[in-house]
Amino acid sequence: MKELAAAGQVIVPTIDELTERCRQLPPLQYLEHEINSAQVARPWQAVLYATNSIMDLVWPAMPMEDKLRFWPYMSWWLSYRVSIPIENAQRIYSLLKSGQLNIITGELTLEALPDSELCVRVTGRGEIEEYKYDAVVVATGTPRDPSLLDNELIQNMLMQGMAIADPFGGIQVSADRGSLRGSSGRFDDRITVLGELTSGTYFFTSALEINARHAANRATIVIEKLGNTGRLPVEAHGHHAPGWQAKNFGLDAFAT
After folding, report:
1. pLDDT per residue over 240-252, tens digit each?
2. CA distances from 63 to 54, 58, 67, 214 (A)
3. Where are the domains of the chain?
4. Distance between terminal CA atoms of the chain?
5. Helix (H, G, I), strand (E, B), or coil: what is residue 212?
6. How far apart are CA 198 and CA 172, in angstroms?
7. Cα-atom radius of gyration of the chain, to the nearest Å?
8. What is the rounded distance in angstroms from the CA atom of residue 42 to the CA atom of residue 7?
9. How far apart are CA 172 and CA 178, in angstroms?
10. I want to staple 95 with a disulfide (CB 3.0 to 4.6 A). Which of 9, 19, 101, 110 is the partner?
11. Could you count the other beta carbons within 10 Å of the beta carbon of residue 72?
C-alpha cells in the first residue's frame, strides 16, 4: 500500500476492497471496464511489475497459511500482472460483441471424428456440451501439475522418487540454489532446475528477468562444481549469486 501511494495512487484501496473486486464479471462487462480504466494512468501497474525483482524471494519466505490464503486469488493476480495491449482488448471486445467469438468455461476433452471433424466436449456445472470444428488450436500452456506434463523424463523422475510434486506447481526445489528435492526429503545439488518447473517454489517464473537471474545462479553452481578452474569474475546483476565467465568450459552463454 505504501508503494501504491508513493507511485502516485490517489486513493489507495484496502485489502478488503481489493478482495471484493475479485468477482467474475461477464466477459463483455469485464473488458469494457478494463478498457475504460486503461484510458488513464494506473500506478499500481508499475508497482506490480516491479515485483519481478523480489517475487522469487517473497514467495519462499511467506508462511504456508499466507500462501493458502492468497492461492484462491492467484488467477486474479496473473490476470492483472500479465496484461495485454489495449488494442488487443478492444479487438477481443469487438469480436465478442459481434458474436464471432465466444468464451466457454469448463474441462475440455477432444475427440477426432470419422468425418475429419473434431469434437470438443466441455464439462461444466454438471453438464456436458459438444462443439464440432474443422480445426482446433490447443494453447493452454504448461500445466502447473507436473503429473499432467507430457514429458517422459519428468514422469520417470516422479515415479522413481527423484522428484516430487510441489503443491503450488512444478516440482520441489531449494529456493536458494534450485536443487532438486526427492522423495527422501533431501535436496540433490547435482540436479538444478529453472523455469516453469520451479513455479511452486518461486510462484512466478514467466518473466525473462527472473529466469535470466536464476540461469546465472545455476551457471555459477555448475562452474563451482567444476572446481573453479578458469573462473573469471564479472559484474553481477541480481541478488542470488555473482556471475562468472568460464572460457575454459564453454559456458559463455551462462555468464551474466
Report:
1. 444 433 333 333 3
2. 16, 10, 6, 23
3. 2-98, 104-140, 146-254
4. 33
5. helix
6. 7
7. 22
8. 9
9. 9
10. 101
11. 10
The DSSP result for 16-64, as a single string, is HHHHHH-----HHHHHHHHHHHTTS--HHHHHHHHGGGTHHHHHHHS-H
How far are the Cα atoms of 20, 47, 88, 100, 126 from residue 4, in angstroms, in the given order? 18, 7, 26, 39, 42
The H or E element spanning position 89 is helix 86-98
pLDDT (0 to 100) of residue 201: 95
Supply the pTM of this predicted model: 0.73
CA–CA gap between residue 82 and residue 84 (Å, rounded):
7
In 3D, which of 222, 253, 215 has the Cα closest to residue 237? 215
Specify the residue for cell string 517454489: 201
Which cell numbers in the block locate residue 30? Answer: 469485464
User: What b/e string do you get for 115-154 counting C-beta neighbours within 10 Å, with b at 16 or more?
Assistant: eeeeebeeeeeeeeeeeeeeeeeeeeebebebeebeeeeb
